[in-house]
Design a protein that fits this description.
78% helix, single chain
């Protein structure tokens, strides 16, 4: 049982690692548009996951909107706070019809996070490669970015009894954080550079 638990926790990390391997197959002149397309895919998956895997289950468990809405805003505010205190570059600047599925809810959530992590690995590793970083270094940085998920997934299991009591709030909190990342980082990244409809099509896909 412990082995199965760890295998499940490591699935998103494997997804990020798989996405990072794209640096070995893409030429520098192709990486800019492909990176924007991966940003579009990641944005679409994160918006879908925020709605179908987080907000709808939260609202099914908690009918009080006064629990759901603050959760969304607090999740976004946490990311806004981190955005203000953590040095990073913003894209484009030089400044620092849903069908029913037979999958279980947990399976769909893992699938959504893994799909997101595959573009995430590519989103991190492709720009590094295009900025005079070696393919191997870009791959390892992109891969290691996903290691926090199994670590904090295990922490969540340890505190599961407490978390289950406030699960609707936690789900809406996560949704707010994901939506903030989409609007603040991924959509601008997808839209910058020479005009192309491919990133938008990637988002819709």
């Amino acid at each position: 049982m412990v082995m199965i638990m760890w295998l499940r926790l490591l699935i998103p990390f494997f997804g990020t690692t798989l996405g990072s391997t794209v640096v070995f197959f893409v030429k520098n002149k192709q990486s800019e548009l492909l990176s924007r397309c991966f940003s579009g895919i990641a944005s679409g998956v994160m918006v879908a996951a925020s709605i179908w895997s987080l907000l709808i289950p939260a609202m099914n468990q908690e009918k009080n909107i006064l629990v759901i809405v603050p959760g969304i805003f607090l999740g976004a505010l946490l990311l806004l706070f981190l955005d203000c205190i953590v040095p990073h570059m913003h894209p484009g600047t030089n400044e620092e019809e849903r069908k029913e599925s037979h999958f279980k809810k947990t399976t769909k959530l893992v699938f959504a996070v893994t799909l997101h992590n595959i573009p995430e690995g590519a989103i991190l590793s492709l720009p590094l490669k295009s900025n005079d970083c070696s393919k191997h270094k870009a791959f390892w940085i992109g891969s290691l970015s996903g290691i926090v998920e199994p670590i904090f997934g295990y922490v969540t299991i340890l505190f599961s009894n407490w978390i289950l009591e406030c699960l609707p709030f936690c789900l809406s909190f996560a949704a707010g954080a994901m939506l903030f990342v989409v609007v603040e980082e991924l959509v601008p990244e997808m839209a910058q550079g020479k005009h192309s409809n491919l990133p938008t099509i990637s988002f819709l896909f």
